[in-house]
Amino acid sequence: MDIRTFHFNPLMVNTYILSDETKEAVIVDPGNCRFYEDSQIREYVADKNLKIKYIINTHPHLDHIVGNPWCKAEYGAEILLHEAGMKEYNRAYAYAAVFGFEIGEMPAPDRFIADGEILTFGDQRLEVFYTPGHCDGSICLYFADNQVIFTGDLIFELSVGRSDLPTGDGVTLLRSIRDKILTLPDEVTILSGHGDPTSVGRERGGNPYINGQWV
Q1: How do 159-160 and 124-130 pair as beta strands?
Q2: pTM beyond 0.90, yes or no
Q3: Cα–Cα 20 to 30 A to 103, which of 19, 55, 90, 183?
Q4: Is pLDDT above 50 for 189?
Q5: Cα–Cα distance, 163 to 167 (Å, whole number)
Q6: CA pair distance 129, 160, nearest whole angstrom
Q7: What integer pLDDT is reported at residue 212 of this predicted model?
Q8: Phi and psi angles of residue 57, each rounded to the nearest 5 degrees, phi first
C-alpha cells in the first residue's frame, strides 16, 4: 500500500491518500482549504491515475473536514464518518468563522461507519475502531496487513489529543488508547492527525501521558 502525506491548512493537518496497485484510493482527513492545497491533491491523484473510493473523516473537527466539499465535488467519492460526530460536523460553519476558514457548503455524509466495520478498497482491508475522548465520533483506521493505524487526534508522538474541547473527555480518551491502541503489536506504525509518525511500542514505553497509567 502506498501512503502519501500532505500537511494542510493553518493547523497543519496530516491529510493522507492511501492507494495500491489497483489504483483504488481513499482520502483520510481532507484538510485542504486553499487553492494550492487543492492542486496538490489533484496533481497527485492525476499523476498516479487514482480512483478515489472514499473520503474518510477520523473525527468531525473543522481542520480535518474542511476539504470535504472540494474532494466530494472533484471525485464524487463517498464521505464516511461516525454518526456520533454529526453534532460537531454540523457546527462547521460556526467554527469556520471563529478560526478564519472559508468553507463551502458542507456535504452530508453518504453513510456512517461503526466500530468493528471492515472497509475495503483495492486489495486493502481496514478495520474501524471507535475511539472517543478527543471528541464524539472519533475513529481510528487499522490496516492489520500493513501494520499501520491512522489515529486522527487520539494519540500523537509522545503526546495525546486534547480533551478540553466540546464532547472531549480525558478519562475516555485514555481508555480508548488503552483498549484500542496499546493492545496492538509494538511494531504497528501510528500515523496521527498532526506531527510525525511513531509506533505502538514507542508510545507504550515512552509516552508520558499514558506510561505508568495503563501499562
Answers
A1: unpaired
A2: yes
A3: 19
A4: yes
A5: 8
A6: 17
A7: 54
A8: -100, 120
In this prediction, residue 102 has a pLDDT band, given cuts at 50, 70 and 90, of: confident
pLDDT for position 214: 44
Alpha-carbon span 161 to 59, nearest angstrom: 12
d(CA 1, CA 89) in angstroms, rounded, equals: 29
Query: What local confidence, expressed as pLDDT, does residue 215 receive?
Result: 41
Report the residue count for the chain: 215
Q: What percent of the chain has pLDDT over 90?
A: 88
Query: 55 with 80: CB under 8 angstroms?
Result: yes
Buried b (16+ CB within 10 A) or exposed e, 184-197: beeebbbbbbbeee
**HEC-encoded secondary structure of the chain:** CEEEEEEECCCCEEEEEEECCCCEEEEECCCCCCHHHHHHHHHHHHHHCCEEEEEECCCCCHHHHCCHHHHHHHHCCEEEECHHHHHHHCCHHHHHHHHCCCCCCCCCCCEECCCCCEEEECCEEEEEEECCCCCCCCEEEEECCCCEEEEECCEECCEECCCCCCCCCHHHHHHHHHHHHCCCCCCCEEEECCCCCEEHHHHHHHCCCCCCCCC
Q: Which residue has the higher pLDDT, 177 or 211?
A: 177
CA angle 167, 169, 175 (to 5 degrees): 130
User: Which residues does 39 contact at the CB level (< 8 Å), separation at least 6?
Assistant: none
Q: What is the pLDDT of residues 111-134, one digit of tens each?
A: 999 999 999 999 999 999 999 999
